[in-house]
Amino acid sequence: MNYLSQKKAIKQGKIESVYFIHGNQSFLMEDFLQQLINYVQTKEQQPNILNFPLSETPIEVIVEEAETMSFFGGNKIIVIKDFYAVSSKKIDSKFDHDFKQLERYLENPAPETILVILAPYEKLDERKKLTKLLKKTTVVEANTFDEKTLKEWLITEAKTRNVTLEMNVAEQMMERVGTNLLLLTQEIDKLALYAGEGEEITEDMVKLLVSRTLEQDIFALIDLAITNQTEKALIIFHDLLRQKEEPLKILSLLTRQIRIYYQVKELLKRGYSHKEMAQLVKLHPYVVKLASQKVHLFEEAQLKQLMKEAAECDYSIKTGKIEKALAVELYIFKLAH
């Protein structure tokens, strides 16, 4: 079951004895764990919560703690952090863990204990017996969301704050903030407070309250420049300078975006899907989707030339041949032409 489905199950009171949470999104892991703790706290005065990093505690000690009834009664939540035993990653550990103890526990978990195992790894070593056993428990995948799931997540987060959010508004938020879950959560908090309980977050509210991230500003700047809206592109550039952004950093991000366009254009020619391209260039599929909508505005030779000119611009700045803000401004004019 995926992350959103498991969160919904907790809200419905379906609590399991063992949760195996794995993936590359630590934010989602902590968010899921907090929701689990919050639910148990509403049912009990104060659950006993114990955290054990695997690198600092023998697994035998953790299992023994899981099997021991809480002194104060009620549920006990035991969290094993950085569970590297299911990955192929080489870890120097000061303990010789006896994982057979955990394997035995998984076959018959203690009813008064909720065991949460956090494995911050996208890929697991499926050959290991322990991995196979954990895959039979309640599995929560905390990997990068695709575009559709990210929108659903935003809508769900809005509901938890007693406000509503339509799909088109979720899309607008992603266009301004990108796909960073922590930043999106902060913006949802702000919008929910502004809208008020029981109200709807609108596009006008997003325009009023949600600022673009630096990366999204760069994307907008290039978009304006290549569609011959140079004046508006320069307004964004000078706004960034007023915000004390370093011109060399802006140039670096401009170059990165041009490189993404080049990579996406090449992969589109070869017939790759957005998902496949995202995996190859190690970007979120939504970023690849946005890039693929713009690459038709460039010829391959133009993108190569723009990357070359960006390198020359960088060299001119670092060797003191030209003032840095002026150099980047001239580069923006080249983008427009």
TrEMBL record:
- Fetch the InterPro entries from UniProt: DNA_pol3_clamp-load_cplx_C, DNA_pol3_delta-like_C, DNA_pol3_delta_N, DNA_polIII_delta, P-loop_NTPase
GO MF, one term, reads: DNA-directed DNA polymerase activity
Start and end residues of each DNA polymerase III delta N-terminal domain: 19-142
Where the record annotates domain DNA polymerase III delta subunit-like C-terminal, the positions are: 215-335
Which is one Gene Ontology cellular component term of this protein? Answer: DNA polymerase III complex
In short, the EC number is 2.7.7.7
Give any single GO term for biological process. Answer: DNA-templated DNA replication
The catalysed reaction is: DNA(n) + a 2'-deoxyribonucleoside 5'-triphosphate = DNA(n+1) + diphosphate
Quick check: keyword Nucleotidyltransferase in the entry?
Answer: yes
Q: Entry's Pfam families?
A: DNA_pol3_delta, DNA_pol3_delta_C
What is this enzyme's class at the first EC digit?
transferase
Which key words are in the record? Answer: DNA replication, DNA-directed DNA polymerase, Nucleotidyltransferase, Transferase
Similarity comment text for this entry: Belongs to the DNA polymerase HolA subunit family.
By its UniProt entry, which NCBIfam families does this protein fall under?
holA
| Protein name, per record | DNA polymerase III subunit delta
